[in-house]
Specification:
The chain has 236 residues and is of the alpha+beta class. It has a domain of 101 residues: SH3 type barrels, CATH 2.30.30. It has 3 helices and 7 strands, in the order αβββββββαα. A 5-stranded antiparallel β-sheet has the order 6-5-4-1-7, with no helix packed on it. A two-stranded antiparallel ribbon has the order 2-3. β2 and β3 form a beta hairpin. The longest helix has 120 residues. The radius of gyration is 67 Å and the shape is rod-shaped.
């Protein structure tokens, strides 16, 4: 049973080796410029100092770690470069553990992060939508209030317009009456002045007439005075 279990654990590695078999046909000393290869996302792979299991392990590479293939030899080992804390580690990894497609682990992480971003954006948009909906409701209520106020103002304006014709006519008549009254007052002042002058003239004429009568009386008395009768004493 232990041997069978060991065979079962080794079986996926054999299948992966069959899948990546064309990589072994790549000529040696192939240089890669970008980190376009990855450690298989199903296992942890040792990064060794040489091309063989007998060499010391530099570091265990996590599944999905990006690597740059520096050299592919005729053996089952490839020299790769791995960045750890901004430090480039140079070592050898079994070709079975190398794949040139993005591992499902990384894709899952990226998709999860993208889904989280989309969920956050959806929540933000939903909150903005709710706020805009609330503001739209308030604006709609304000609009109804404004419409009601406008309706009442229109009615008041129509009422004022209906009575404005009579008011304008009354105002014109009032202004005409004020003008007539002003003219009458001016004429009254003139007539009073004329009456005052006429009274003065009549008074002077009466005074002159009285003086004339008095003077005429004196003159008449002077010229037509009756002689005095002689008394008995005048005869002696």
């Amino acid at each position: 049973m232990p041997k069978f279990n060991s065979f079962k654990r080794f079986l996926p590695i054999v299948g992966l080796a069959v899948m990546v078999q064309p990589m072994w046909l790549i000529p040696s000393l192939v240089q890669a410029e970008e980190y376009t290869h990855y450690i298989s996302d199903s296992i942890q792979v040792p990064l060794r100092r040489g091309a063989g299991n007998e060499f010391r392990i530099i570091r265990m590479l996590e599944a999905g770690s990006p690597i740059k293939v520096l050299e592919v030899g005729d053996s089952n080992w490839s020299r790769v470069e791995y960045m750890h804390n901004d430090t480039a580690l140079d070592g050898w990894v079994n070709k079975i553990a190398i794949q040139n497609e993005t591992p499902a682990k990384i894709l899952l992480t990226e998709q999860t992060q993208r889904l989280d971003r989309l969920n956050n954006q959806h929540k933000a948009l939903q909150a903005e939508h709710d706020e805009l909906k609330s503001r739209a409701s308030k604006v709609s209520q304000e609009l109804e209030t404004i419409k009601q106020e406008k309706f009442e103002l229109d009615k008041e304006f129509d009422h004022l317009t209906s009575i404005s014709g009579g008011a304008i006519q009354l105002d014109q008549q009032n202004q005409e009456m004020h003008r007539l009254i002003s003219d009458l007052e001016s004429q009254n002042v003139i007539m009073r002045e004329q009456i005052a002058r006429a009274e003065d003239t009549v008074k002077r004429q009466w005074f002159l007439a009285g003086a004339g009568v008095l003077l005429a009386g004196l003159l008449l008395g002077r010229f037509f005075r009756i002689p005095k009768r002689r008394g008995s004493w005048d005869k002696i």
